[in-house]
Amino acid sequence: MAERPAVLLDHDTLPTSGVMKDQARHPALRIALLCLGFLLLAVTPLVGPIPGPGGLLTFAGGMILILRNSNWARRVFARTKRRWPRFGHYADLALRRPSFQRRRERDRLARGGAGFGDASR
Prior knowledge:
By secondary structure, the chain is an all-alpha fold.
């Protein structure tokens, strides 16, 4: 019996970093969350015209699910951030990424500014 090709390759769904390996999820759950993320993105144009922030929330939720569960999406996101640094800054700020917080704190200390724990603000 011939083995069927996988829709998503292992290098696109398996965790790549130590942090991701600590938070590793079952592959079926990762794929389900990835599909839910794409579903939320598909629903965004339908929810957008409704008054209120529904379209923004569904788009953000879908992007978060996709970025957390797809290495391919992470690579594209990183390339986009390098190409357009202003977009990357605001995206990291909105996603409240720990790496962004560490970079910001490191830059503040390098400039000699007050850090998060300093009371000299």
